[in-house]
Every structure is written in C-alpha cells, then in structure tokens.
Amino acid sequence: MDFLRLLCAAVLLVLGLLLGGQKAVNGGADGGGAGIVKRMKLGSQGLEVSAQGLGCMGMSAFYGAPKPDHDMISLIHHAINSGVTFLDTSDFYGPFTNEILLGKALKGGVRDKVELATKLGLKFVDNKIEVHGDPAYVRAALESSLKRLGVDSIDLYYQLRIDTSVPIEVTVGELKKLVEEGKVKYIGLSEASASTIRRAHAVHPITAVQLEWSLWSRDAEQEIIPTCRELGIGIVAYSPLGRVFFTSGAKFVENLAHDDSRKNLPRFHPENVEHNNTLFERVSDLAARKGCTPSQLALAWVHHQGNDVCPIPGTTKIANFDQNIAALSVKLTPEELAELESYASADAVKGDRYPNYCSTWTDTETPPLSSSN
C-alpha cells in the first residue's frame, strides 16, 4: 500500500508540473507571469527594466475609441503584478489622455514599482501633425508630461520623431539639461537614423532607441541596430506583433472600427493585406507545430534577437496580455528562427510601414550644429 501511495503521489506531481508548464505556454488565466518576466539592462547607463514592456498607446488613441479608464487601470496593475513594469506612453497619444490615464494608474505608490517611459516631439496643429525639437518646446513638453503623469521625473524620455529643422545636438542638449536637473533619468530616440543616433550620442549617452521591429518590419537591421549595439544603446521594439496582424492575420482588418488608424497603413490596404496573409498562415503553421499561438511565436522571434532587445507589445485585454508574456517561455531553435525569417523575405510583405506623410527614420537627417550658431 505504501508503494501504491508513493506511486500515486509521484504521478500527481508529474501531472502538476506538466499542467503548470502548459499554463506558462498558454499564458495562464491568473496572470502568474512574474516568474517568467525577467529583468534586463537596457542600454549601458544603468537602466534596468522588465524583459518585456507594455505599450499603452492603444488604450487611449489611434486604435478605435478610447477604452474605459477603469478597465485599463486594472490591466496596467495586472501587468505590474505580473512582472511587466516597463510602461510606454507619449504626450501625443490622445493627445495627452494616455499620459493622464497612466497618471491615474500610478497613484498610491505604484509609481515606485515601474520604469516609466514617455515621449515628446509630435503635436496636432489645425488637424495636422507637426514635429518639434527646439529647446523651448522640449522643456515645455517635459513639464506638461510631469504634471499629467503626476510624477517628479521620467525614467526614459524619448524624442518620438526627429525635428529635421533643428540640429539633433540642440535637441539632445536640452534633454541633457533636464537630466542634469533630475527631471529625466535617461534619454531615448525613436525612429532615428544611424547617423542621427551617432550625433545625438556624442552630446549625451542615448540609453535606448525605439523602432518598429517584427517579422515583417526588419528595415532597421541593416544600419540602425548594428549602430545601437556598437554604442551600447538598448533597443525597444514597438509593434512587435505587426499591430495585431500576427494575432489573427487579414481577418482582423475587416473588423477595424471606422476611426482605427490602421486602416490608413499601406500593409492593411485591400490590395496588400491578402498577399500579406500568406506570411501569417505560414507563421500559424509553425506555431501549431510548436504548441503556441502565432502571436506568441512572432513575439518570441523578437525576444530571440538579443538580450539587448525589449519588445513592448500593446493590448487592451488582460487575456491577451497573459498570452504575450507567455511568449517569454517559447524557445526557438536556430532552424526554427531561420524558417521564420525565410517566410518574411523582402517580397513576402507588400506595403510600406507608414503612409508617405508620416516621418520615419529614413528622413531624420538634421542640419549641422554649425547652422544654429
């Protein structure tokens, strides 16, 4: 009898381990992700963040109607309790409302548990988007963000887009002053070219560069990512799931709200999206073989690009968040990585990342510093 009892106990233990492991892969409904969300050094100036962040933009802007504050605050708190403490926002998201949302979520001592990143550089003027990087604007934007967020300092302050009328040295020079005043801890750039990154880094160390990096957005690999690694700059990958494309493929485009900005993106235009769906189908096939979801596989691919890369997938649903952190448990062999990358060859994707009227790293060259004297 003792032998049978021991045997039963051993069987139950093994079953528990197997079920627990499956729960980790599938994202467990209780959100118990703190154990798999490790910490990482972002850049080489001392900033430490969770190995996966939370992009907060879609909670308030661009992806249909803003979501209820109560629900989004619950999601943010769930993320923090799950070990995802790197929160990403901007004054442009809303505008302003996403920072206000984060400010509410950070009350009651929550601020001390997170690494808070926000951005400046874009604003709406007469229904048009303008890019600004002059010192007065930089300082005013920072002060306004501090008030909306209800904090004394920003952990990581990015220039969201580069003002090509102002030498990058001038913009970063003002950011450097804000660091010296204790209002900003670390400086970042978003959608900046390799040469712009070098010029900025010469004025003050750049801690992180945020760029779109996913299976179907790999244009930064040629120059920007090698430059970041040469200079010891961390890489923050936004839209690692292709703006939800790698969750459900072309069919999600049919259900986009009329005011969802993704409808304006060339890759989601009718003449392109069906072609691009072939990529999703191939990723889905491999995901099925791996026992994970397509989105987890796509996110795992980003994680496997290096220990200096922190993806910041966004979501508005706790269930989707749990699935995203489960991607940290998906391990890919060199053969599987090569297979995924073969799916995403240059001719596998039709349509640019952004419409022509949106600025990206390809048009971020600024005047020489001498021109400002």
In short:
With 373 residues, this protein is of the alpha/beta class.
Please tag this protein with its features:
373 residues; TIM Barrel; 13 helices; eight-stranded parallel β-sheet; globular; 12 strands; alpha/beta; single chain
Task: Set out the fold topology.
Layout: H1 2-26, E1 39-42, E2 47-50, E3 54-55, H2 69-81, E4 86-88, H3 97-105, E5 115-120, E6 122-125, E7 128-131, H4 135-149, E8 154-159, H5 168-180, E9 184-190, H6 194-203, E10 206-212, H7 224-231, E11 234-238, H8 245-248, H9 251-254, H10 270-290, H11 294-303, E12 309-311, H12 318-326, H13 334-343
Parallel strand pairs: 3-4, 4-5, 5-8, 8-9, 9-10, 10-11, 11-12
Antiparallel strand pairs: 1-2, 6-7
Helix pairs in contact: 2-3, 4-5, 5-6, 6-7, 10-11
3D architecture notes:
α10 (270-290) packs across α11. The chain has a single domain, classed as TIM Barrel, CATH 3.20.20. The chain has an eight-stranded parallel β-sheet, covered by helices on one side. α2 links the parallel β3 and β4 (86-88). It contains 13 helices and twelve strands. The chain is α/β, with parallel strands linked by helices and 373 residues long. The model is unreliable at 1-32 (pLDDT under 50).
Helix content: 40-55%
Q: Give the helix tally.
A: 13
CATH architecture: Alpha-Beta Barrel
Q: Structural class, please?
A: alpha/beta
Total separate domains: 1
